Amino acid sequence: MKNYLRLLWSDERGQDVAEYAVMLAVILVIVVGTIKLIGSNANNVFSSVASTIQ
Prior knowledge:
This protein has helices spanning 2-10, 13-53. It has 2 helices and no strands. It has one domain (14-53).
């Protein structure tokens, strides 16, 4: 069991996957934040235009 855990600890193939997962998480947070910001502003603009038209 110790040898297996030591082998897993020294195996570097999984590091690439973890790094890509972290980068993907950061990108998703940025994208979701941007969409939320733009979405609320766009909603306000459309509401303003709709009230002006009426």
